[in-house]
Amino acid sequence: MPLESQKPQTITVNAAYAAQIQISTSVSDGKLSSTVQLVMGGANVNEKGAWTAATSGGAATINLSSLPGDLKHLQPDIDAAFGAIVAVVDKVNAVRKLA
Question: pTM for this one?
Answer without folding.
Answer: 0.69
